Structures are given as C-alpha cells and as structure tokens.
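Researcher: Structure prediction, please.
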Amino acid sequence: PREEVAYVTCTYRSTCIEQPDFLATVDLNPRSPHYGQVIHRLPMPNLKDELHCAGWGPACGCFESGAAAKRTKLWPGAASTPMSSRKVGTRWWHRCQGWAGGCRGPVAPPRPICAPGASAGLGLGTGRGSTRGGLVPPVLSGAAPAAPQSRSSPLLPNPALSEFPLPKSRPVAADPPQEPSGEGSRSPLAPDPFPPCPAGVFGRRLNVWNLSCRSLSQCFDLGEDSLPLNVRFLHNPDAAEGYVACALSGAVFRFYKSCEANNWAVEEVIRIPPKDVSGWIMPKMPAFIADLLISPDDRFLYVSNWLHGDIRQYELSRSCKPRLVGQVFVGGSILRGGPVTVCRDEELKCQPEPLVVKCKRVYGGPAKMQLSLDGKRLYVTNSFYSTWDRQFYPSMVK
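Model: Predicted structure follows.
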C-alpha cells in the first residue's frame, strides 16, 4: 500500500536555536487535511547530537525476510557520539554511548546499516581523535550476525569509516553561525575558513569485510580524495553485485562477484563531469554525490548531486553501463540568477531555473533520498550536514 507517513531526522545545529534535534513525522496521505505537514515531533534526549540519516531494522533490508518484514524499528544516526534506537509507536529507548568502552570505540555514526540478521552502525573514528573507523557490532538488535543466505559469500562491501573526512579534519559547526557572505561563496569541502583541505584528507578505498570472522578481505582504491560514501546492493538475492558512489569524484563504481575467482571486482560505470565556473570557491565545481538508491525491482539507479543540484535516474542493464533516462533539478549551486556562472558545461546548454514549490523557493541541494516501495515516488531532503550547509547554502540555514 502507498505510504502514509514519513520519518525525517531534523537538526537545529548552526541555527542559534538551543533545542534538541527531533524526529519529525510527516503526513504523506494526499486525502488528509494535514497532507505535507509535520504532525508530530519526537525530541532527542541531548542537545547538539546532530541527527543524520536513519535506517529501518534488519527485517526490512534483508530480501529473504519476505512479506513478513515489518517496519517497526527505526535507527537514527548522529554526527556525534551517542546512537539512539527508536521503536516506532512506543516509548522504548536503547542508547549506546561510545561503543567498546567510553571513547575507545568508534564514535560519530553517520548512519546505521542493515546486516544479515542484525543492525550495525558505522563509526567515523574514536573520541580521542584517531582516524580509525569501523563497523559497530550489531549489539543493539539483540541478535548475533548471521551469514547471508545468498550471494554465495559472507562478504559484504562497506566503506571504511576512516574513508569519510577524518575526525581531526572534519569541520565542527560553530554556534552561532557567522554572517553568510552570499550563496556559494564559501567552501563546502573544507573546514571553515577557506582554503580547502590538503590532498589526502578524504578517503579513497572500498573495503570488503568478512562478517563471519570480522576481518578485512579485500580493498579497492577508487582514487585520491574520491570519498566513497554510499554502498548499495541489488535487491535480487541471486545477484552478487551492487554500486558504490564516490561523493567528491562524481564517480559510481559497480562491484560484483568474479566468476573465475571467489573474489569481488570493481569497475567504473558512471562519472559526472565537473563544471567550469566563476564566482565560486574553485574554478571547477565537482559533482557531490550525497546519496545513491536502487529501485526495488533493480531496474533504476538514482543519484543525488548535492552541489550541482540535480537528481539523476539511470536505467540498469547487465549488458552495458547504466543509461541516464531522467534528470530533475532541486536547488543546487548553479541556478540561473545566482552568484555562480557556469563557463563550460559538458552536459547542459544553460543554467537551470530555481525551484519554486507552492510559491516558496527551495534552497540547498538534493541530499538524502527515499524511494517508495512501489517505485513511483521519490522523496528527497535538501540538507546534508550542518557545517557544510552553513558554509555552502547559508540561505537554506537562515
């Protein structure tokens, strides 16, 4: 059935509002008088725990669960130490402060992931500034990780969390925010103030972990500062393949199980070219892939380009590379009438128009996405990370 509500993580970071972040419930029923409105807010227990994207419990992400899967547990990630688990419809909380004993374990989980038989969190580093990242053991679900029932191997590619901005370099939001100097005039890729980070700060590898013995099995170099950020498997349990999006290089790689050897292989299938611009912090504006989705029937691949502002739909085929079949602009930094002028563009003939919905200008750029289960509606947020929001889209924060 068509979805009737959506749960959205919302943050007050960089807004001068001293209130806890909250989980918003949005009415998505077109027949409801409150359609498109926030009908409930669930505040978090602490201040300045910046909520990031959320994921459903393991029953919904594992194909073999079948029609019996129910979306009853929601795991919001946070760009800070605590991680919360929320059981929808009750007042039950389970919080885990700094796993593996205080600040010695991975912290700052940007997102939960669904592992076979359990949920796991991803950590960006340690509380003492170490660059080590890793997978948080799935203790929150109360079940031990089980070996996958398909794909012929217990190997699951995941980005090592040291591959995101390192904790020593990762910018921290300043409160209150500085007065913006204009949309797009400050660096979204570096700590404030400009200039950008030196080479080698962002990650470059896709790591394959053996979940049975919790060991690293393979490692693929995807290019310096490519920043592998999103990993998605095909939904078909017999298809041992998936895609990983590199945020800063604008590249999408396909990973698959090699027939000759019992190993994984990687090939580049998509690369969004940068744009030559003026009025920006660099002469070339790279694509920033903030999210990657695969439709439930494995026919389409969706990519959100947070800097350029477009959402792309690619048709997937085993015989050839993904083919671009749809594109729509939702905000972004190259809109007509803004401070950025596109001097050379390999794809577009002119700069896109600003997006206006119900007489209201949409600022920011397309970030996290959620596709309806029937594949007919795509929902997108326009906020990625408060520090980079404030640096690059100050009008949105305001």
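Model: The mean pLDDT is 74.
Researcher: Thanks, that helps.
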